[in-house]
């Protein structure tokens, strides 16, 4: 079984082992510290951390009150990242996110423009209830999320590194919300579904969050260390078998590629960015689990959070009550030969 060379030089096994041991200790410390503040929700925490370790952005979808905001602020503290929060509202303007130029006048009366940076100039940006802002304002994040700089009045301004957007969205159809455009959804590495906690976790929430004091999170990493782990993830080897599994799954999800269920239920499927996202996230998941290389199981485990926001059902499928989760589950069965 051959190994696929990445665009950057691939480490040999000894090098990966040496660097990964330290990374595993750091990841273990992150998981422990986050677990002291966020009770239960292991899958949500895992997928959000995998997004950061892969260098991407995540969209957290769940009903109000499930600690989405608390998870993002906790991660900012634990990862040692500067963080800002933007509450998206219908009257929010692009300049409220990016910043704007103001005119200054010095003592000699000379006037000049000065750029005042907006809250996007941070390492971890929490876009709270992102679908409550207008499409125009939502699109202000597109360039930042893809190119890691913004343009104001024709001038480029680089964002701090690392830069991650963790956005929250309410899944309920409510007044005053705007669907995220497909182009912006595709910028999110994962869509992380935040469900209700298990009973034991909810009991712990009741007991430990209603007293006089709550245990605060502590920083265990720095931004520069996060970048080192992200570089390690990109240099981990990937077998031909895993690459084939990614290609097969992504292509099966597109209409016109020989899958009858896809042709019947899917209006449009994932583009190449979905495959790129899987290539990164399966490596991060392997490292998260203490392995030196990803397996085909990692591909199938991450199919839902990576594909679901990059696909759309046909009108007929929606009328029949078909859900995108069911479509992806069937695709995984087909791709795995079950």
From TrEMBL:
Alphabetical keyword list: ATP-binding, Nucleotide-binding
- UniProt-listed InterPro entries: ATPase_AAA-3 (IPR011703), CbbQ/NirQ/NorQ/GpvN (IPR050764), ChlI/MoxR_AAA_lid (IPR041628), P-loop_NTPase (IPR027417)
Extract the Gene3D superfamilies matched here.
Magnesium chelatase subunit I, C-Terminal domain, P-loop containing nucleotide triphosphate hydrolases
Q: Which family does it belong to?
A: Belongs to the MoxR family.
Identify the residues that the record assigns to the ChlI/MoxR AAA lid domain, covering every copy: 262-328
Query: SUPFAM superfamilies, from UniProt?
Result: P-loop containing nucleoside triphosphate hydrolases (SSF52540)
Q: Where is the ATPase AAA-3 domain?
A: 57-190
Protein name per Swiss-Prot or TrEMBL: MoxR family ATPase
Q: Which GO terms describe its molecular function?
A: ATP binding; ATP hydrolysis activity
């Amino acid at each position: 079984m051959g190994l696929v060379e990445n665009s950057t030089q691939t480490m040999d096994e000894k090098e990966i082992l040496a660097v990964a041991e330290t990374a595993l200790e750091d990841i273990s410390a992150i998981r422990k510290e986050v677990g002291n503040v966020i009770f239960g929700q292991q899958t949500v925490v895992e997928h959000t951390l995998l997004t950061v370790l892969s260098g991407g952005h995540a969209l957290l979808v769940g009903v109000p009150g499930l600690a989405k905001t608390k998870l993002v602020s906790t991660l900012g503290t634990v990862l040692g990242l500067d963080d800002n929060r933007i509450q998206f509202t219908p009257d929010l303007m692009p300049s409220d996110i990016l910043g704007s130029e103001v005119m200054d006048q010095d003592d000699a009366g000379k006037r000049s423009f000065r750029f005042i940076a907006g809250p996007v100039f941070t390492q971890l940006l929490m876009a709270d209830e992102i679908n409550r802002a207008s499409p125009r304002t939502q699109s202000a994040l597109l360039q930042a999320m893809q190119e890691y700089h913004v343009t104001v009045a024709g001038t480029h301004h680089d964002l701090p590194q690392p830069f991650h957007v963790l956005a929250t969205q309410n899944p309920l159809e409510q007044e005053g919300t705007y669907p995220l455009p497909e182009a912006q959804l595709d910028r999110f590495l994962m869509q992380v579904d935040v469900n209700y906690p298990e009973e034991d976790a909810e009991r712990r929430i009741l007991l430990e969050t209603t007293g006089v004091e709550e245990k605060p999170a502590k920083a265990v990493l720095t931004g520069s260390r996060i970048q080192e782990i992200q570089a390690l993830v990109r240099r981990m080897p990937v077998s031909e078998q895993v690459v084939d599994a990614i290609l097969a799954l992504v292509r099966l999800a597109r209409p016109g590629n020989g899958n009858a269920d896809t042709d019947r239920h899917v209006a449009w499927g994932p583009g190449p960015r979905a495959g790129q996202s899987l290539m990164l996230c399966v490596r991060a998941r392997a490292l998260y689990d203490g392995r030196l290389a990803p397996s085909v199981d990692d591909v199938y485990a991450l199919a839902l959070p990576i594909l679901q926001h990059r696909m759309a059902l046909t009108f007929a499928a929606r009328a029949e009550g078909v859900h995108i989760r069911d479509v992806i589950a069937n695709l995984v069965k087909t791709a795995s030969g079950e």
